[in-house]
Backbone:
């Protein structure tokens, strides 16, 4: 598993994918599939779990940001109505 992060060909693929998707290289996680293996490999499992962990972190950040934007939007709408109500009273 540790050789994956030191492999020049994988480093080049990570750079290419980062450029293609317009994201930083540190957000690209190499994962190997079990298409030809007959037995499980802990190193392959760890790579997949590391990628999944990062996906969950990104999803959580996205949901937190969306929730914050929604709360701020509600405050702006609610605040505007409150000011108008006090002016008409």
Residues:
């Amino acid at each position: 598993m540790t050789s994956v992060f030191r492999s020049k060909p994988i480093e080049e693929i990570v750079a290419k994918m980062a450029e293609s998707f317009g994201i930083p290289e540190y957000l690209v996680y190499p994962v190997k599939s079990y298409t030809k293996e007959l037995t499980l490999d802990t190193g392959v499992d760890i790579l997949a779990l590391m990628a999944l962990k990062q996906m969950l972190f990104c999803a959580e950040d996205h949901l937190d940001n969306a929730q914050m934007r929604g709360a701020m939007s509600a405050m702006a709408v609610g605040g505007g109505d409150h000011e108008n109500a006090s002016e008409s009273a």
In short: The chain has one domain: 2-88. Residues 2-88 form one domain. The radius of gyration is 23 Å. Helices lie at 8-21, 42-88.
